[in-house]
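Sequence in, structure out.
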Amino acid sequence: MAEDKDERKRPQLRLVVNNAEKRHPGPAAADEDFIPLERLVAQRDTFRAEFYRDLGVWETKAYGALERFLGQKKWPYGLDPHLGSFMVLPAAVVCPELLTHGGLPQDELLLFVADDLTGKGLCLSLETILPFYSDDDAVMEDALLYAPVLPYGSLFLEENRQDGFLDLIYRLAFPLYPPALTATLTDRLFAVAALELRETLHALTEYPQE
């Protein structure tokens, strides 16, 4: 009975949203070369040579196609050569609803190109952390269980190295066949991500309060 009583007292998901004061941007370790989104965007041309230096031919072509696409969309983006070959965008550019569900303008969305599971081609991936935070792992696990099952992307929990809390992460991956990226495919990637993020945010906002 005591265990059941404690279970009923467990904080609900509504207490998880807007806990931004508990999260600290940037790595906790001073030796990590963290660069904020604003600087990545402002110094994109400075970082470009280092970003592309060790990439293969097909990766270079894919990232070049992404840069052209983002330039045509006039979306701000940065190139991060230090924490991996990531293109970084404000998450709200892709899904503005994030700002109405506890997200912040500086929240990031990552784009990256990597080998697919077969090892025979490339995969374009998009990833962002959803604005639902709690220091109670059970609450975050409930959030994952309550969130919708998505037809294209996936949701998973991962411990954040900065503060030790669990992050609820959305990831969408498209295989490239052959490894060449087109504007049509990129546009579909962002359209699917925006739709699935909206659906997830609405579902989590409607989480049972009792």
